[in-house]
Amino acid sequence: MFKTVLIAGVGLIGSSLARVLRREGLAGEIRGAGRSADTLRKAKELGVIDAAFDSVEAGAKDADAVFVCTPVGRIVETVGRAASVMKKGAIVSDVGSVKSTIASVETPDGVFFVPAHPVAGTEKSGPENGFAELFEGRWCILTPTEKTDKGATAVIRRVWEKAGMRVEEMSPERHDRVMALMSHLPHLIAYTIVGTAADLEEQTRNDVLKYAAGGFRDFTRIAGSDPVMWRDIFLNNTDAVLDGLQRFTEDLTVLQRAIRRKDGAALQEWFTRTRDIRRRIVEVRQDTPESEKLLLKGKK
Amino acid sequence: MFKTVLIAGVGLIGSSLARVLRREGLAGEIRGAGRSADTLRKAKELGVIDAAFDSVEAGAKDADAVFVCTPVGRIVETVGRAASVMKKGAIVSDVGSVKSTIASVETPDGVFFVPAHPVAGTEKSGPENGFAELFEGRWCILTPTEKTDKGATAVIRRVWEKAGMRVEEMSPERHDRVMALMSHLPHLIAYTIVGTAADLEEQTRNDVLKYAAGGFRDFTRIAGSDPVMWRDIFLNNTDAVLDGLQRFTEDLTVLQRAIRRKDGAALQEWFTRTRDIRRRIVEVRQDTPESEKLLLKGKK
Known about the structure:
The structure is a homodimer.
Chain A (H helix, E strand, L loop, with lengths): L1 E7 L3 H12 L3 E7 L3 H9 L5 E3 L2 H5 L4 E4 L6 H11 L5 E4 L17 E3 L1 E3 L20 E4 L7 H13 L3 E4 L2 H27 L3 H10 L2 H9 L4 H10 L1 H23 L3 H20 L6 H10 L1
Parallel strand pairs in A: 1-2, 1-4, 2-3, 4-5, 5-6, 8-9
Antiparallel strand pairs in A: 7-8
Helix pairs in contact in A: 6-8, 6-10
């Protein structure tokens, strides 16, 4: 599909994509670029990339495709730098978790930008934690604008379909509104409560960490996600996150009031409704059974 | 260890305990009692219990030990009803997730009550979802008072050790304070945000459910837990939960303010701190690797 591909940012997502390109034979040469020489070295040692470049421009020059897999905060700049040196007909795409601030980036005539978001990941970071199966059965959302080239969009769609993803298109604004509720707000809340526990008086804090189980353990896993990636997400999807946060706080206040008034009927009704939602999500097969998770991990 | 044991409430925990008693040969006859005839029938069909009793008194009479595995709201009453007919020297214990409202239950002379909380579970309910390995490597917290019999406490400790649990003792108040932060509050928050998503305008809600991934999927799993069990927990650990909720809300407001002001440094600092906490928890081996999870599921 491509003679030469550059992955700008060979972390969890970038290195997993590189592994897919290799497995599917979609690229002759897979190049890596990034700000961390250490990360690039690791990726090369792992055989994830064939060549490491210390500048995006050097790696993007004469590449057929560039995938920008940096934290959201550096995507616009990195796409611009790559596009500035890319040849006519080449495609640059990204994997950013926020799209409104990215989708409308301008590129030189004949260099095509396709904004994309493969909705996949783990709380781990770095090329050593990537694996080709990370994307399997997950959604990839493309957010093309009226300026986005249809042919280039079709090419990027095929890449993520080869990765095992179900690909859909929607507007950047709709994407960001959905992600705010579905991913950004839950992460913010997990980050919050884990921080709350860390501030407890010592005995209680040590007990919480020592006996950590059930809900809290799940929250700490979420709150173990990459700090820079998530900082950038909240700085780039501010309005949608703040709106979701407002709705959440109102609902939490309702439940707090029910607990204070010992209104068991209200609590049970609420909890029953959320359990039905869980069932619906499992029915639409958006959750991964443990067995599949192990399979994926095993294939790392 | 026991000639005859009654499990009052053969749901997820009760049926898993019954499977442990069977596997370890700790009981000659394993009886079940409960309010749902359907649940009792299932447990008997599964071979989890040898005999089903429609009243706790009938099953507790002449039993050497009774384990009350009902929702928290019915534990005090059920322990009392069992103890009222139990023979001298017999032991009644429970598995309640809240202890302050339970630990001080009075029993007739010679019938020993040992308040216990095996900290284990899944979001599933019912005897068909129980499995003997549910407790392995988890903590079991005993909350004996000055009135609790030392010998009986030692017996119950051995039962949970046979289940593979690490057993510790602490005061009921300390237990409830820790659980409020570590388990009850995270569940309340997960219940809240899943409910928030359910109230969104239709397109956004359907998108959230359709694309559910990452954080939100974890939350829906937590929010899929048994509504009655959790209603009772919040009605019985009200003060500790409300206190934790207050701390959480304050911290969330701080992060909300940082997002609104686009204070990236504050966000990154917070997220880095929570990641360190995650690392500490993984280091103390309180989290279960996927492989072990599959092993447990496979053994169901």
